[in-house]
# Entry
Amino acid sequence: VLEKELSSSKLYVKKFGGTSVGSIARIEHIADKVAKAFFEGERQVIVLSAMAGETNRLFALAGQVDPKAHARELDMLVSTGEQVSIALMAMALHKRGVKAKSLTGDQVQIHTNSQFGRASIESVDTDYLQALLSQGVIPVVAGFQGRDSNGEMTTLGRGGSDTTAVALAAALSADECQIFTDVTGVFTTDPNIEPGAQKLDAISFEVMYEMARLGAKVLHPDSVSYAERFKVPLRVLSSFEPGEGTLIQFAGCAPTKAKIVGIATSKSLALVSLQGLKEQDDACAQLFHQLAQLGVDIDLMTKTQHESQMLSFTLAESALEQVLSELDALSSRLDLGPVYVEQQLARISLVADGTLAMAEVAASVFDTLGKQGIHVKLLSTSEIKLSVVIAESDLHFGVRALHQALALDRV
Ligand code: ASP
Ligand code: MG
# Structure
């Protein structure tokens, strides 16, 4: 009877982020929540991040030994953070009379490719998880980690625990994947920048994906696309405050007039411009081939031809040094002219729920930012988004002005 009851109750995969497990007191708080749901008969799989700050601390330790440490060893190191939180959580649950078992990605059999530091999940074995669930045991799984086909430890990239949770929810056909965090849901923009930011009750996968990719940190973009692909109902909620959070869902019918849903931001960007790039040969191809091999994410690109050919792109400031030394090495081969660099830049991106009337939006963005004396250094658009690059010091003013101009404080 018990088993029948258990298997007919709803199954939730619940992921708790770093701040939610950032201290013993917080772990105890989450354990209370999980225990309450357990005694109410809910079936749960828990996925945890490392305690707040721990992954950064581990990366910094590696940096002290060797800034060019092998990616395999880095994964071995940084995956330990999650193992601390799962073991502590299992202990806290046991103390409450709840059956629970902490599991590494390897023990669950979360299979990934072999790209250390940025691995993708290829499949998840559900046998062990199902067996535990049917015995009334809560699996407490380490996020962010998996194993490749050689049995090597891999990690999924910063923020990857969200993806672990979605992948488990997909594999188990869970009723919902719930991402618990320190905010009450997905907002129209970062509430730390604009206090008038509004929580959204629902958002489409498409808009959420763009927001995440363009800097909204509430969900990892891979987790959003994974959830969309496998049709996993996904929800973002607060670990500390009650509420329904934000449901990520498939868009209804296309709106007749697209509207801006949110503003995503990203800081610490650099703009690199190259002049005098030769036109005839494959200089551009060679250049980007090299950059691709470094694994550097290049963003907003422009290539213009005036007197000579000019190429500009943005990238994370943290990758700048590496890219500049690569450009230096390529300089004579490709006959590059001077390289100009601007730092401390930020990007503001407006994301819409449909195809934007781009000229109209661009006009109002230039108008709004212009009135604040904010200079747009670079602009790029795609069907549903418009991004501008500005000085980082203008970010807060720019976001607030746009948020107000678009009436996002009144959604
Ligand atoms: N602990 C990892 C990180 O900080 C993964 C995660 O929290 O999602 O990136
Ligand atoms: Mg996160």
